[in-house]
Amino acid sequence: MARTSQESEELRKLSRSLEIPAGQEWEGAVRLMLRLMGEDPNREGLRRTPLRVKKALQFFTSGYRQKPATILSRTFNVQHDEMVVVKDIDFYSMCEHHLLPFFGRCHIAYMPDKKIVGLSKIPRLVEAFSRRLQVQEQLTTQIAESINGHLKPLGVACVMEAAHLCLMMRGVQKLNARAVTSSMLGVFRTSEKTRSEFLTLIRSNFS
After folding, report:
1. Which residues belong to the active site?
2. What is the pLDDT of residue 18?
3. How far is CA 164 from CA 85, 132, 142, in A?
């Protein structure tokens, strides 16, 4: 995700105030956090930690560099007016409130209106939106609305279930708590029969 000129200037000012050399902003920020934790970033076990954290965070937020419109750009015209379901899609994301992971499974369905997308594009879309700083409610809506906007189907459904480390490691510390969110658009919102069929399919075990 490209920075605005204002964001770039703020980064330069912060770097100058912390005396962080240009090009070393990630590593400098991690070294500062280690110092604030009471650690010595120069000790043997932590010397390469700033670089490792930089690479990890860049991967965790790689969705900012992916374009959902590009992922869904190639479509196929087919005579298929029944539900298409891709379920049990593993995902990992980062809570934007605490920068802690949340992870789980995503289930998606859409009702085509003469146009479909390759099945592999659905998990790719989930990856593009989940590899960002997120809240689960927003993530669920973004996925559904992206499919709805680009494919123009008769309806879209997205259900996500996840474990949040911000619930498990801190605060209420509830190890077994899970969050479930949904977004129902088009016929999945207006037709109870269609919605029920989708919910039945994602609960089914076909193995």
Report:
1. 95-98, 136, 164, 166
2. 67
3. 25, 15, 19
User: What pLDDT does 207 receive?
Assistant: 57
Q: In the structure encoding, which two tokens stand for residue 171, read together? A: 């605060």
Interior/surface letters 153-164, b for 16+ CB within 10 angstroms, e for the rest: bbbbbbbbebbb
Give 117: exposed, middle or buried? Use CB within 10 Å, 0-12, 13-18, 19+.
buried
pLDDT, tens digit (0-9, with 9 covering 90-100), for 148-186: 999 999 999 999 999 999 999 999 999 999 999 999 999
Question: How do residues 19-43 score in pLDDT, each as one tens digit?
Answer: 777 778 899 999 989 988 999 999 9
- Domains of the chain in start order, with CATH, are 5-60 (no CATH), 74-203 (3.30.1130.10)
